[in-house]
Design a protein that fits this description.
The structure is a homodimer of 417-residue chains.
Chain A: H1 2-16, H2 21-37, H3 39-55, H4 60-66, H5 70-85, E1 93-98, E2 104-111, E3 114-119, H6 124-135, E4 139-143, H7 149-165, E5 173-175, H8 182-187, E6 196-200, H9 203-212, E7 225-229, H10 235-247, E8 256-262, H11 263-280, E9 283-286, H12 288-295, E10 301-303, E11 317-323, H13 326-336, E12 341-345, H14 349-358, E13 363-368, E14 385-387, E15 395-397, E16 403-414
Parallel strand pairs in A: 3-4, 3-6, 4-5, 7-8, 7-12, 8-11, 9-10, 9-11, 12-13
Antiparallel strand pairs in A: 1-2, 2-16, 14-15
Helix pairs in contact in A: 2-5, 2-7, 3-7, 5-6, 10-11
C-alpha cells in the first residue's frame, strides 16, 4: 500500500513542480472553500475519533486538542487563505554567471519533491502541512496521530476533492489511513519516493526517525533553552524577559527551562527572582548553590534533580543554578542544551559577543526573550518546523526550507577542456 | 576510543569556530610546509601500505592510486596553499532585519562543527578534506580506506604537528587509525559529536551510511548520466559533446552512461555515432531498436542488458536506446537516473525548457557536456563531494556546504507580545 502511495506521490510531484504560483493558489483557495462546505464529513469523523479517545481514557485537555468545531475549521480554512498571500520561492534564481568555459550556469530554486510528515494528535496540522507543501510545489505523505486517524483521513479526502477539481492528482496529498504503528517503520524506509522527512513530535519520535529512517530527516522541536543572567544585567528588565520566556506559553519548545545566574549578581537577583516567580506561579528547581537564597523567598522552590537539566518541563517550572562566570554558563549550555534557543542578559558588550559566538544554538539572543524563535516572529510567514540540526535548515523553517535547487547549464555546444 | 575522539573533536570545533580567516590560513600554510619537511614519515608509512597491498594481490592500477611520491606530496601541499586563497564563507551575514517587535535579527554563517568523512583508498583525500574543513572552521574525523591506514595515520600525525605548532588542538583533525571495519558502524552512530557525515565511495558505502547512520548524511557521487539527442540536434556538435562526456575521463561520476536518441533522427544519427565511437574506442550497448542500425557500423556493439541502464560503467562503454519522443526520454531518466547530471542536445527551445524543468537532477544541461558538474568547473574553488540528495546541498559542494547558519537576535530588553 505504501509503495503505491509513494509512486502516486512521486508522479504528482512532477506535475506540481510545473505549476505557477497562481495555479497553486487556486488549489489552496479551493481547499479552503471545501473545508467549509464539506465540513460535515470532517466533523463526523472527528466525533468518532473523540468517542474512541474518551473510551481510551484520554484527558479532557487532550480531548480538547483533538476536537474540531465548525469555528476551528473556519479558522483552519482562513490559515490556508493566508498561505496564498505568501511569496512563492519556487523558480527564484539564487545565483549564476558565465563560466570561463563559455557555459552559462544558474542555480534555480525548485521543490524538494515528496515530503513525509509524521505528527502527533492535533488535526489542524494535516491542513497546515498540506498547504505549505502545495504552495512550494511538493507532494505530501502524512502520518498523523493515531487518535485522529479518522479525522485526518476525512480531511485529506476533502483536500483531494479540491485537488482533483483543479486538475491536480489526488496523489499530491495522501494520508496513511491506519493507526497501525508498523506503517511508520515502513514509511521511514521509503527513500525511493520521499525526499525529506519531518517528524513533528516528542523526543521519542525524533530518535526513532534518526535511528530507522533511510530518508534525510529534519529533527528539532526539542528545546532545553537557557537564559544566562550576567553580573551586569539589570534586574527589573531581566525579570521581565524571564517571565515572558517562561510563562507566555509554557508548553512551547522555545520556553526557557534553565536560568544560569552569575555569582556576582546572585545575592541581589535571587530574592527578586523569588518574588517575581511567586507572582507568576513558577516553581523553582534550584541547584544547591541557589537553594538557600531562594528558600527564604516567597516562590515555591525544590532541589533540582540532575536529569532536569536535560529535559523540557513544558510547564511552569524553572531550573536555577548559580555559575562562576560566563565560561561556566557556556559550558553548561554546551552540555545540557539542545541547540535550540539561548539568551544572555547583560550590559557588557564583550560578554554579549562571546555568548553569541560561542553558544552553538539555532538562535542566540542578547537581552531578548527566547520566545522569539518562531517562523511567524522571524517574518518567514509560516513555520513548517523548528530544526535543531545543522543541515539544510536551522531554527524556524519557512517555505524556503521546503525547496532545494538545481544547477542549470546552458551551453552553445560546449565541452569541458 | 571513538568516544574520546568525538569529545576531542567537539572541543576543538569550539576553538576553530572562533578563528579568523588569517589564523586559519596560517594553520593551512603550516600544514603545507610540514607535508614537505616531514615527507619522509608519510612516505615510509606509504611504503608499508604498498607492501601489504601487493601481498594482498591488488592490481597495479590500484597500487598506483595508493602510492605517494615526493612529487605527489609536493602537489598535495600546493593544493593546501590554494585553499588559503579561497574566500572564507564563515561570518557572512546571509540576511537580517528589524522585526516589528523591535528585535533586530541576522542569520550568520557559522561552521557546521565536526564533519565525519569516510573515503576509499586514495591518500590525497586525507589532506584535501582536512584543509577544506579547517578553512571553514570545522573539526574533522577521517576514516580512510583500510589499504592506506598507515599512510593516513602518518599524514594526520604531520597535520596535528602543524596544528599544535599554531596553538590549535590536535583534536581538530583526527583519523581512525585502524583497519577494523566495525569502527565504521560505530562512527555512524556518533550523532552526539559528528554534525555531518560525508561518505566518498561507491554505492555500497552510501547505502551503508543511509541505512545505519544516525548522523545526517550527504549521499552522492553515483552518476548514471544521460544525454538525450533530440530530433533537431545537429549531428557533428552532438557527437563532439558525446565524445567529451564519455571519454574525457570515463571513471568519473559525471561521465555519460546512456544515450537516448529521438526516433526522428536515429536513421541519420546512429551510423554517424558508430563511426565516431569506433574512432573513440567506445563499445556500444544497444537496445534492440538501435541494434540493427548500429550493427552495420564500425563500432563494437553488443545487446544491452536491462540492469546496465541502472549502473555506472566507469569505462568506455555506452548504452544506446531509441526513444519515441522527449516524454519517453524524460520517463527513462526518471526511472534509471541517479539525479546527478543529464543533458539535452537540441535546437528546439521548447524542448530545452521542458527538459530543464522536468528532469529532476542536480545538474541539467542544454547543449553541453555532463562533464561540467564539478566544483572547480562551477567556480566553487573546491569540491568536498557531489551531492545527489536534495537536502542541504545539491550537486558540487564547495566551502559553503561545510557551513550552517545561526539566527542572532539583538534585543533592547525585548519580549514577545
Amino acid at each position: 500500500m505504501l509503495e503505491q502511495m509513494g509512486q502516486a506521490a512521486k508522479a504528482a510531484s512532477y506535475q506540481l513542480a510545473l505549476l505557477s504560483s497562481k495555479e497553486k493558489n487556486r488549489v489552496l483557495e479551493k481547499i479552503a472553500d471545501y473545508l467549509e462546505t464539506e465540513a460535515q464529513q470532517i466533523l463526523t469523523a472527528n466525533e468518532q475519533d473523540l468517542l474512541e479517545a474518551r473510551r481510551n481514557g484520554l484527558s479532557e485537555a487532550m480531548l480538547d486538542r483533538l476536537a474540531l468545531t465548525p469555528a476551528r475549521l473556519t479558522a483552519i480554512a482562513s490559515d490556508v487563505r493566508q498561505v496564498c498571500k505568501l511569496a512563492d520561492p519556487v523558480g527564484q534564481v539564487i545565483d549564476g554567471g558565465l563560466l570561463d568555459s563559455g557555459l552559462r550556469i544558474e542555480r534555480r530554486r525548485v521543490p524538494l519533491g515528496v515530503i513525509g510528515v509524521i505528527y502527533e494528535a492535533r488535526p489542524n496540522v494535516t491542513v497546515d502541512v498540506a498547504s505549505l507543501c502545495l504552495k512550494t510545489g511538493n507532494a505530501a505523505i502524512l502520518r498523523g496521530g493515531k487518535e485522529t486517524w479518522r479525522t485526518n483521513a476525512a480531511t485529506v479526502k476533502v483536500i483531494q476533492q479540491a485537488l482533483e477539481e483543479c486538475g491536480v492528482p489526488a496523489g499530491a496529498v495522501q494520508a496513511i489511513e491506519s493507526p497501525d504503528r508498523a506503517l511508520v517503520s515502513e514509511m521511514l524506509r521509503m527513500d525511493k519516493y520521499i525526499d525529506m522527512l519531518i517528524p513533528r513530535g516528542g523526543a521519542g519520535l525524533h530518535q526513532l526517525c534518526r535511528e530507522q529512517s533511510t530518508i534525510p530527516v529534519i529533527t528539532g522541536g526539542i528545546g532545553v533553552c537557557h537564559i544566562f543572567v550576567d553580573d551586569t544585567a539589570e534586574i527589573a528588565p531581566a525579570l521581565n524577559i524571564i517571565v515572558n520566556a517562561k510563562t507566555q506559553r509554557p508548553s512551547t519548545c522555545n520556553t526557557v527551562e534553565t536560568l544560569l545566574v552569575h555569582q556576582g549578581i546572585a545575592a541581589h537577583f535571587l530574592p527578586a527572582l523569588s518574588k517575581q516567580m511567586a507572582e507568576s506561579g513558577v516553581t523553582l528547581h534550584a541547584e544547591n548553590n541557589a537553594l538557600d537564597a531562594l528558600k527564604s523567598g516567597p516562590a515555591k522552590v525544590i532541589a533540582v534533580q540532575p536529569e532536569e537539566y536535560d529535559n523540557e518541563f513544558l510547564s511552569l517550572d524553572l531550573n536555577v543554578k548559580v555559575v562562576a562566570d560566563l565560561d561556566e554558563a557556556i559550558a553548561h549550555i554546551r552540555q545540557h542544551g539542545t541547540q535550540h534557543s539561548d539568551a544572555i542578559l547583560t550590559r557588557t558588550i564583550g560578554n554579549a559577543n562571546r555568548f553569541v559566538n560561542e553558544v552553538d544554538s539555532s538562535a542566540v539572543y542578547v537581552n531578548a526573550s527566547t520566545r522569539f524563535t518562531d517562523g511567524g516572529q522571524f517574518g518567514l510567514g509560516a513555520e513548517v518546523a523548528v530544526s535543531t540540526q545543522k543541515l539544510h535548515a536551522r531554527g524556524p523553517m519557512g517555505l524556503e526550507a521546503l525547496t532545494t535547487y538545481k544547477w542549470i547549464g546552458f551551453g552553445d555546444d560546449t565541452i569541458r577542456a
